Amino acid sequence: MTTLNLPQAPEAVEAQAEPGLVERIWNRVERALFYVGELTDLASQTIRQIVRGPMERTLLVAQFDQVGVRSLSIVAITSLFIGMVLALQTAYSLEEFGGKLFIGKVVSLSLIRELAPVLMSLMVGGRVGAGITAELGTMKVTEQIDALRALATNPVRKLVVPRVLATTLMFPLLTIVSNAVGIIGGLLIAVGNLHLSANYYLRSVIETVKYNDLASGVAKTFFFGFGIGLIACFNGLRTSGGADGVGRSTTMTVVTGAITVLIMDFFLTKLFLLVF
């Protein structure tokens, strides 16, 4: 006696195929672990290529210009208004306790130790990271990277190393610019709105900021720059699916880079509090 295998209803097939909550969570964790592992492998390849020898000077100079010089405007605008807002909020919040007298101390320490490195990395990282991913992703989907491999050219050495080096070296310099512009923004509010003397404000800044404060803030951005450059290049090199895939990779770079900066900031702050 034969039995007929009747086709199941589409709803039943969909209900069977849909994974459960635990399985979805496990799949996400598995994908995240694979992502971190492949990213670590690219980091090791990049470091090996840097150690091997000098890079092409023209490629490095072009990336220095793209990452550093062209980001000066966004760094200056962001830092100026952050310093001004910080000065206003300090004066308003501490008005009962003579907050005007502490504006130089609060603005300088907040900017140099935390706000300038993190905000600069988030703003510049979003701009630079999205650009790097879009550029490399377009090269990937148009098979230009495969053409480099066919010509016996290492894509990591040719494409990744100059970009990662540029972000790693330019982020600290941009942070120093951000510190200076932010302190000037606080100075404008202190003199214009709060009627403090510029000499008193600058003297309080100089007396408050120590070498350890500046060193800890700037040192963080070496790691931020390396992480953002590496994530941007990695997402660009693994892009697939045409123009839509380039858009997805760019979005992933911006989100992942911002989360990475915030997570690294916490652990680096704890480390530098012990070291400095």
Describe the secondary structure blueprint for this structure.
Layout: H1 10-17, H2 21-52, H3 57-67, H4 72-93, H5 103-141, H6 144-150, H7 155-192, H8 198-208, H9 211-237, H10 242-275
Helix pairs in contact: 2-7, 3-7, 4-5, 4-7, 5-7, 5-8, 5-9, 5-10, 7-8, 7-9, 9-10
Description:
The structure is a single chain. The protein has one domain (56-271). It is mainly α and 276 residues long. Helix 7 packs across helix 8. The longest helix is centred in the middle third of the chain and has 39 residues, at 103-141. The model has no long low-confidence stretch (mean pLDDT 87). It has helices spanning 10-17, 21-52, 57-67, 72-93, 103-141, 144-150, 155-192, 198-208, 211-237, 242-275. It has 10 helices and no strands. The protein is elongated.
